[in-house]
Design brief:
The structure is a single chain. The chain is of the alpha/beta class. It has nine helices and six strands; from the N terminus they run αααβαβαβαβαβαβα. A six-stranded parallel sheet has the order 2-1-3-4-5-6, sandwiched between helices. Helix 6 (144-155) links the parallel strand 3 (137-142) and strand 4 (160-166). Helix 1 packs antiparallel against helix 7. The radius of gyration is 20 Å and the shape is globular. Mean pLDDT is 91; it is low at 3-15.
């Protein structure tokens, strides 16, 4: 390597380090952003109840979720929430499979927010499942995964039979939750300006059911329940936000929704 090459390498390295610094600084600013928003998030008391999630392994030792054989076996794709891995929804998946449904992961690993290339891969996943299953796919999305599911159904209504969201913040202010600052820090973009063209509140042209809970410590009730015209039905549960993926109530509700269109 001559002096010129070494100089260029040094400059490129310096530019890369500066770019990374700017990126980190921007993410910190986004996480600390001050906004005037009249959409309240769930109070601290409800949020603290989410810590009960850590007792879930012990609860499963004594919990018995009764599952009946499905009259209409479906092809189901489960979409995890922000920052969650598909394994977080495996407990629900096992019960849906016990009922006779075919359950598939979303194929994206951890859900780290909206990104054009990530969503394109998700669309390819849906198309592949539709072709292999020889029928429309039922989408069950938890939290942010539900917003992904709604957007998939808008773009591919011919491949989606029904969308079931669980504690998904699709209605009203995108800041009516306790996760928006973390989302902005991780993704590097504002929660109300995702890098794809979408209107979360716009109803998909397929049957759409919103499961919500007044005990949700992450997403506000109004945001997850939606308004008239933004979904076909809203169903109230009593679980926490984390509980949407493992409570017997949530599992039974999803099983009922898979039976109908």
């Amino acid at each position: 390597m001559d002096v010129t090459d070494a100089s260029m390498t040094s400059k490129n390295s310096g530019a890369g380090a500066k770019g990374r610094y700017i990126s980190v600084a921007r993410r910190i600013r986004l996480a600390r952003e001050v906004v005037e928003d009249d959409a309240p998030s769930p109070p601290l008391g409800k949020m603290l109840r989410e810590l009960g999630h850590f007792l879930e392994p012990a609860r499963r030792l004594v919990r018995n979720v009764e599952v009946s054989r499905a009259a209409h076996p479906r092809m189901v794709m489960l979409l995890p929430g922000f920052g969650a891995h598909p394994l977080r929804m495996r407990y629900m998946a096992r019960h849906l499979e016990r009922a006779g449904h075919t359950v598939k992961r979303w194929g994206q690993g951890f859900n780290m927010g909206f990104a054009p290339e990530r969503f394109e891969m998700l669309e390819e996943r849906l198309i592949d499942l539709h072709e292999r299953g020889q029928g429309k796919v039922f989408l069950v999305g938890w939290s942010l995964g539900g917003i992904f599911a709604r957007e998939l159904a808008k773009r591919h209504p011919d491949k989606v039979a029904k969308v079931i969201t669980m504690g998904s913040p699709f209605s009203g202010s995108p800041r009516a939750n306790n996760a928006w600052r973390a989302y902005q820090m991780v993704t590097g973009h504002r929660v109300d300006h995702p890098p794809i063209d979408t209107d979360p509140a716009e109803k998909p042209p397929v049957p759409t059911v919103a499961l919500f809970s007044p005990n949700d410590g992450i997403v506000a009730v109004e945001s997850a329940a939606g308004a008239e015209g933004e979904r076909d039905r809203a169903v109230a549960l009593s679980c926490t936000h984390m509980g949407f993926t493992y409570s017997g109530e949530a599992i039974r509700t999803v099983l009922r929704e898979l039976e109908t269109l």
